[in-house]
Amino acid sequence: MSTTLDATHGTQLRSWVASANVAGCDFPIQNLPFGRFRTAGSREALRIGVAIGDQILDLQAAGLVAHNDMNALMAATPAERQALRQQLSEGLREGNSSQQAAWTQALVPQSRVEMAVPCQIGDYTDFYTSVHHATTVGKQFRPDNPLLPNYKWVPIGYHGRASSIGISGQRIKRPQGQTKAPDAAVPTLGPCKRLDYELELGWFIGQGNAQGVPIAIGQAEQHLFGVALFNDWSARDIQGWEYQPLGPFLSKNFASTLSPWVVTMEALAPFRAAFERDAADPQPLPYLDSADNRSQGAFDITLEVLLQTARMREAGEAPVRLSATNSRRAAYWTPAQLVTHHTVNGCNLQPGDLMGSGTLSGPEVTEAGSLLELAGGGKQPITLPNGEQRSFLEDGDTLILKGWCEREGAVRIGLGEVSGTIVA
Ligand code: CA
User: Fold this and answer.
1) How deeply is 77 buried, as exposed, middle or buried, from its count of CB atoms within 10 A (0-12, 13-18, 19+)?
2) How many A from CA of 99 to the centre of ligand 1?
């Protein structure tokens, strides 16, 4: 596991990139997340960079990589990755004047670039790791049988569509589809009326595994590269009609949106937490259990959902918070357990594959990770400060997810944000 704290996590470290030292900055020198970018409005090939303050260090221009292939970088061993992190940390450190002289020309302001999906995502799996989300949503879809009996034994997931995953800032076209109201005799085709978001984390696979060779829980984190914010847009009315018997299909695959910066497992090391399972619940089967996973398999990531309606934007009003939670409170399974379960049958994972956490709803209603939960399936619309009401997303709504890690004795790091706007 990437649990070791080393010199790169030092709380006293500052960077010669001054904006990285500002309190509350998402990208201080202790973070060093990876992303792909090009000059805004250009057709340049994508380049790999590391966010530092409000700048990006272009890794090839800095002489740190010989290519701009993020998937190749993700395939590196954890030891190779740690060596690169060490090199970045030392080179960007305040006082390293020779590296400052060499690397200043490799810095690009974030304001001048457009970001891309961080890597080539070969395969995408979406899990369902919040028992609170599963129970609340289950009650709406199946009042008599909210949580299916396998939930507490099996990390539930389905294979999603990688090609419709986009990057923050996306405009999401309201999908159309087949829906059937409970009192209607037959379904009809039309625009989705219950469009929703899902607050998720997206875990990226680093090294892959050969087909037929499962990844044991003790090795699982060596196969994880890092994490980004992930919004799994969902058409609830289409979902309700289509999801049985094989699960979500067109209700989910029209678009999902990622934040641009992948925060590495190494950067997350100070923010690990114990994985706790209620004593009244079934304990994980042995292949999903280990002492390390119990003591520090979970992650303490604060998550926040914000909404800005078109009316708010026109009035110059800032986005308002809809809910907030923490990945540790919301997730029933750890990322290591997801990797191990995904491969237990011999399924092969590849560098750049994405595993969505599933909607991360905490135990309280104020911690819900979707409008479906916040507005009681449309029965209890929420009222915004300007008087507008929402049961589901409307055209012109901009939905923003934010995430960060903070605790006593560590420097706060952020995941940045992911936003998307609904259009007709
Ligand atoms: Ca989802």
Assistant:
1) exposed
2) 43
Tokens representing 197 are: 């978001």
d(CA 237, CA 248): 11
For 64-122, write each residue's pLDDT tens digit.
999 999 999 999 999 999 999 999 999 999 999 999 999 999 999 999 999 999 999 99
**pLDDT digit string, tens, across residues 375-422:** 999 999 999 999 999 999 999 999 999 999 999 999 999 999 999 999
In this structure, is the dihedral angle defined by the CA atoms of residues 4, 7, 11 and 16, taken in order, positive or negative? negative
Q: How far is the CA of 232 from the centre of ligand 1 (A)?
A: 5
- Domains 7-116 and 124-423 belong to one CATH topology: no
* Residues 117 and 245: beta-carbon distance below 8 Å: no
| Average pLDDT across the chain, whole number | 97
Q: What angle do CA 86, 87, 91 make, to 5 degrees?
A: 120
Q: How confident is the model at residue 45 (pLDDT cuts 50, 70, 90)?
A: very high
CATH code of 124-423, in short, is 3.90.850.10
The residue from 133, 223, 341, 342 that is catalytic is: 133
What is the tens place of the pLDDT at every residue in 196-212? 999 999 999 999 999 99
Q: Is 133 a catalytic residue?
A: yes
Dihedrals φ, ψ of 60, to 5°? -75, -45
The CATH class that applies to domain 7-116 reads: mainly beta
Q: Which residue's entry shows tokens 């997206």? A: 202
**What CA–CA distance (Å, rounded) separates 415 from 402?**
7
Domain ranges in the chain are 7-116, 124-423
Looking at the predicted structure, is the pLDDT value of residue 50 above 90?
yes
Tell how far the Cα of 113 is from the centroid of ligand 1, in angstroms. Answer: 29
- Strand 263-264 and strand 298-299: pairing? unpaired
How far is the centre of ligand 1, averaged over its atoms, from the C-alpha of 344 (Å)? 22
The span from the CA of 241 to the CA of 180, in Å, is 6
Residue 33: phi and psi, rounded to 5, are -80, 155
| Spatial separation of the C-alpha atoms in residues 408 and 210, rounded to whole Å | 40
- Per-residue burial over 324-346, b = 16 or more CB atoms within 10 Å of its CB, e = otherwise: bbbbbbbbbbbbbbbbbbbbbee
